[in-house]
Amino acid sequence: MENETQTAVIWTGIFSDANYFGRYFRDVARHADDPLNSTLAFCMAPYFSLTMHESLQKTRKIDPDISAVFKEGTIAISARSRHSLKLFEDTKRGIEGQISYFREVFTAHSAKFLGNTWLPLARFLETDLGLSSYDGRLVSTTHAATFHLGFEPNELLAEGSGDRIRAVFEEYGSYFAGLGASLDDQGAETFVTSLSPSILDEPRDVRASKYYRKVFNGPETPELNAILTTFRAMLNFAEIVVSSGVDRQHLDYTAFKIGYLSLYQVLRSVRILLNDSSYRLTVRSAAIADRIVNLESARDMLNPAAKPFRNMLMHYNLPPRIDMAKVDLSQPFFGTIPIYFPRHDTFSLIRLVNQCGATAAAIFDEWAEGD
Predict the structure, then answer these.
(1) pLDDT at position 148, please?
(2) Among 233, 208, 82, 88, which Cα is nearest to 148's?
(3) DSSP class per residue in 319-349
(4) What are the beta bridge partners of residue 205?
(5) What is the pLDDT of residues 155-185, one digit of tens each?
(6) SS3 for 204?
(7) Fewest CB within a 10 Å sphere: which of 20, 94, 359, 366?
(8) Interior CA angle at 166 toward 15 and 159, to 5°?
(9) Which residues are within 8 A (CB) of 177 and not within 5 positions of it... i.e. 6 or more apart?
(10) Which DSSP category does 279 fall into?
């Protein structure tokens, strides 16, 4: 019985995500604004990869040869993209590894976009960082997109890379279709239908070296500032885009999951940064970071006792050592909310996450103004 319940939980989560992505792509197809669709694709990429990577681990147990249907490199790309969501919790990279990765991104982008004009006096006008905002708030950057897409920086900027990206995500689409995703799904609308192309700001191109000196922790830590800018974009995307048009008292499993994991990983990463004296923060940065992780709602989310809930969303499995008698497949998140959040029911947890996400995103916008 225990194994049957575990299996039901796993496949319910996987099918819920696949169904949501089918509805998402259905709504994107109806939303014909190309610039908006491109921005959404970059922002959603790591969440597609998360479902792709984690569900593939489960389907391999049924069909060990399923990996053979993917082209060479696709699974590795999905793994890197999925792991980007861990941020500073990525045990293979940690803070220093992420900083090193962004150095590679800086180098690749500057080599591609700077020094191309024939007129030396005009080179100060060249740019190598694109900023995308919705309703005046940052939701993506070209550096963040590189980080989340899972491609190596130089590969992503190579000629023909657009076709390669499309091919990879077409493979994702075929895989999700096998899990039940359908463009003909008549289910509930996703956030896409509530977005307005007119609110998508014109992309702003800047010189990365100048931009990163002015934001967050100041001129001494450009790579760290780039990572914090990525955190900011993730929070804003979850807060003002994924939540757009959504009844905040209604639970949509995948939309909630995107918001919850984005928020949790940013909060956890800020705490990791604060606890590591190797990375010197300015007085202002340290105070703001401390303010973020000590929000009452953030403390609830970061409570170690609640970590299994995050793991369940990330990996689909029921947490180990759970009391199976308390698992209820008919309830949201299988009845686990009272186990890991004793002070909350489904709707109060939704409110908690919404409140924490909105407040943390606003504080990140403030922090980005720099010293």
Answers:
(1) 96
(2) 82
(3) PTT--GGG--TTSGGGG-HHHH-TT--HHHH
(4) 130
(5) 888 877 788 888 998 999 999 998 988 888 8
(6) strand
(7) 366
(8) 155
(9) 22
(10) S
Tokens of 267: 């909060």
Alpha-carbon distance values, 332 to 24, 75, 131, 294 (Å): 21, 31, 37, 28
**Angle, alpha carbons 234-240-246 (nearest 5°):** 120
Token output for 241: 């885009």
Instruction: Report the distance separating Cα 139 and Cα 42, nearest Å.
Output: 10
- Could you give the CA distance from residue 80 to residue 336 in angstroms, rounded to a whole number? 29
Q: How far apart are CA 79 and CA 75, in angstroms?
A: 6
- Listed as ranges, residues in the chain with pLDDT below 70 are 1-2, 32-33, 114-125, 245-250, 371
Q: Which tokens sit at 181? A: 């995703």
Nearest to 361 by CA among 230, 216, 232, 215: 232
First to last CA, the chain: 58
Number of H helices, E strands in the chain: 15, 3
For 168, residues 6+ apart whose C-beta sits below 8 A from its C-beta are 71, 74, 77, 78
Under a CB-based contact definition with an 8 Å cutoff, are residues 340 and 312 in contact? no
Q: So what's the pLDDT on residue 33?
A: 63
Looking at residue 249, its pLDDT comes to 52
Residue 140, φ and ψ in degrees, nearest 5: -165, 155
In this structure, the strands spanning 204-206 and 137-141 are: unpaired
pLDDT of residue 155: 83
Sheet containing 204-206: order of strands: 137-141, 129-134, 204-206
Q: Which residue's entry shows tokens 């970061």?
A: 302
**Per-residue pLDDT at 115:** 65
- Give pTM, 2 decimals: 0.94
